[in-house]
Amino acid sequence: MSDHKVPRKDLDWSTTKVYGELLVRAGDTQERVQDKAEDAIELMLRQSKVERTGLIQAKLLELPLGGPKESPKVTLTRAELVLFMVKDLKGAGEPTKKLMDFGLSALAHPNASVRKLSERILLALYAIDPEGVRKRLPEEAYANKKKSDNSALKKLVEEFDKRDRRA
């Protein structure tokens, strides 16, 4: 590489611009283009200089998830990238609260694939910070089964309990 340092302003601008383009490409109809875009964002997340800016992490964790301007494929890609952040990058320096907010929002998403990824995100996050995850679960997760409407949340709590018994 070069011995010259990239100014922070230029790094921020280019990271935001490239990430935005790649996210648009992640919603492309051709699977090959989608995969390449997702791989490129993963590479960006692995770069220490880009990671320190925190821009990509903040954009990935933006809520509400799957707003009116976001295609279902882009929402799914964001969830896959957050799972990558949690599993491979151990949260990429993001606080458990932000990751939990994203995971719980994805758990309530209408797309079944996003909900499944959400369960994987929350389980991976639980492996890293069990106390933080349990602390941030909504009260309804521990409610009586007859009263609780959210079966996915209930199932997650049961899985957390199983993992705690194994440890």
What would your notes on this structure say?
The termini are far apart. The protein has 167 residues and is mostly helical. The mean pLDDT is 90. The protein has helices at 8-26, 31-46, 48-53, 55-60, 72-87, 96-107, 112-128, 130-136, 151-166. The protein has a single domain (8-137), classed as Alpha Horseshoe (Leucine-rich Repeat Variant), CATH 1.25.10. It contains 9 helices and no strands.
List keywords for this structure.
mainly alpha; 167 residues; 0% strand; Leucine-rich Repeat Variant
β-strand amount: under 5%
Low-pLDDT parts are: none
CATH class value:
Mainly Alpha
Write down the Rg: 17 Å
Describe the biggest sheet?
A: none
Q: Give the CA-CA distance, first to last residue.
A: 45 Å
Quantity of strands, as a count: 0
Q: Which class best fits the helix and strand makeup?
A: mainly alpha
Count of folded domains: 1
User: What is the CATH-assigned architecture?
Assistant: Alpha Horseshoe
Shape: globular
Task: Enumerate how many helices there are, as a single number.
Answer: 9
Provide the residue-averaged pLDDT. Answer: 90
> Remind me, CATH topology?
Leucine-rich Repeat Variant
